[in-house]
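We modelled the chain as a single entity of 215 amino acids. Its sequence is:
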Amino acid sequence: MSCCPESKPRWERRKEARPQELLAAALEQFVEKGYAATRLEDVARCAGVSKGTLYLYFTNKEELFKAVVRDSIVPAIGAAEDRIAGFQGHSGELLRQVMGAWWERIGATKASGIVKLVMAEAANFPDLARFYQEEVIERGTAMLRSLLANGVAKGEFRPVDIDAMTQVLIAPVLMLMVWKHSPAPCNMHGIDAQSFVASYLDLILHGLLPAAADA
């Protein structure tokens, strides 16, 4: 069942607001139905415009999906990169802030459903998988890798396999987002997302801090 919000008639809205409304409607449809089953006419209907109006802004479904990712996920990576570049404190606190902000901006929002969509449908849509790999996965992985490497270099994290630890950081958060959008019996029975994230960060930081700092 669609959960698109009711929209004002298109003649009552400012023209410049339409692209954002279309992106919001598209995110709703992609998360609810998946990429293959999402129809542009349904996106347009949810946004309260005609299909022809949608085509004024996005040439096809692939371009619309890319725009949704660039609007809902990519900015969070940019914000994390900026946070890392300007941070002056301990690397452990930086990691806590970055991962916490990622969950707040992506994991706890509708955008988290894009992760499950990509994992489920990447094999059938290799161009989209390549796009997501380049603009989200590679950039996000490089961001976390640099944070870890800098922490190790400063002696604030103990020496670890940086590449492996980067994936260890990513995997539980990805799984939590997948669980969030999975039907029974594979859903989050009894799991509180905020408690999960807090426990995850506690475990990770105790594993990364040098023995003296962890005592």
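As a brief sanity check on the tokenised model: The first helix runs from residue 18 to 33. The mean pLDDT is 89.
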